[in-house]
Amino acid sequence: MKFGMTFAEYLQHGEQEGFLNNCSHVEYKRLKKVLKSCRICRAESHGEGEDDSGGGGGEGASELCQCESKAAQCPACDQLFFAEIAKEASEISGCFSSRARQLRHLHLPSGLQRYMRHVRCCFVDDQNTLVQEGRMLIDYITMNAIAMRKILKKYDKIHSSVNGRNFKTTLRAKHIELLQSPWLTELGAFCINSNNSDIGKSGEFIQQFSCDFSGAEPLMTLTLSNSVNLEYSLTCAVCLDTLFNPYALGCGHLFCKGCACSSASVFLFEGPKAAPKGAKCPVCRAVGVYANSVHLAELDLLLKNSCRDYWKERMQSERMEMVKQSKIYWESQTKFAIGYGH
């Protein structure tokens, strides 16, 4: 079955139909029609379009495409495609992040809500509902990412260009590349924590999330049904060790909380969000990414359960560092209050 038919069935049938009502998605069919008209227009410019146009195709093509015979770029397609795909990617990424955040909040509540959840679990077991929601979210982001990659690949094939491939770099720079979202890593940790690493039942493309801590570098792997493995490193880029108390910055890069705070020159007890506006990501040097930093609680729980001795050692070390920094902070505040610093 072609991907277009599979994607159409995914949007219209099954348990995902109600789930997708309030979610954005890639307009795969419409964008593919634009590319088809573009191909007809380019063929006509080479004198080959009479048979391919099927009579009425040329008129629709002239409205959508203005390709030149020797041009590698198509002004109409470029304007429509890349602006439209960037908008769709932004909406899909925002929807996915919002739903994943809500799911994580329901699974790992804090304060009074944690107590209320414990009381609720005495009467209603909603764990399976949460797991099913997580599965559908992973299907959602993966199906749309595949649709986006296929349509960009088709663009390059028709226009004999690399604009579609280069556009992926633009999406990554805007932090809306779908399969690089830190919330996908968080959902993978959620599935493993729920003892449901095999999540192939909910979708054709998703088969398995797994973690490997035995190698030189800890990895989380998402295996697709076409035997493609997407690997996500669980190594902090600052301390070069396994993540501890992980935080994702707005750019998507993951760091230990202590490493993120140290890089931004803020105290550990203040947290990454206290970083100044001009603080840069240690990896990509993007500015202003600390304000949108997120604590990956599910991933932290996974690391705690998988690397108990390492996690305890890092916890003790971080507590000692926090006490040390707190002492320095309050000493400086006391000196300032009594005017000693002047």
Measured between the Cα atoms of the first and last residue, the distance is 76 Å
Structural class: mainly alpha
How many β-strands, per DSSP? Answer: 6
Major sheet size, sense and barrel closure: 3 strands, antiparallel
Number of domains: 2
Helix-strand pattern: HHHHHHHHHHEEEEEHEHH
CA-based gyration radius: 24 Å
Mean pLDDT: 79
Shape: globular
Unreliably modeled segments: 48-72, 196-205
Strand order, largest beta sheet:
1-2-3
Beta content: 5-15%
Helix content: 55-70%
Number of helices: 13
Gist of the model:
With 342 residues, the chain is mainly alpha-helical. It contains 13 helices and 6 strands.
Description:
This protein has 342 residues and is mostly helical. The protein folds into two domains: 3-196; 234-317, Zinc/RING finger domain, C3HC4 (zinc finger) (Herpes Virus-1, 2-Layer Sandwich), CATH 3.30.40. 56% of the residues lie in helices and 8% in strands. The protein contains 13 helices and six strands. The strands form two sheets. It has a three-stranded antiparallel β-sheet, with helices on one face. Helix 3 crosses helix 5 (57-64), helix 6 runs antiparallel to helix 8 (127-159) and helix 8 packs across helix 9 (163-173). The chain starts with a helix and ends in a 5-residue tail after the last helix. Residues 1-169 form the SPX domain. Its EC number is 2.3.2.27. Pathway: Protein modification; protein ubiquitination. One of its GO terms (molecular function) is ubiquitin protein ligase activity. It catalyses: S-ubiquitinyl-[E2 ubiquitin-conjugating enzyme]-L-cysteine + [acceptor protein]-L-lysine = [E2 ubiquitin-conjugating enzyme]-L-cysteine + N(6)-ubiquitinyl-[acceptor protein]-L-lysine.
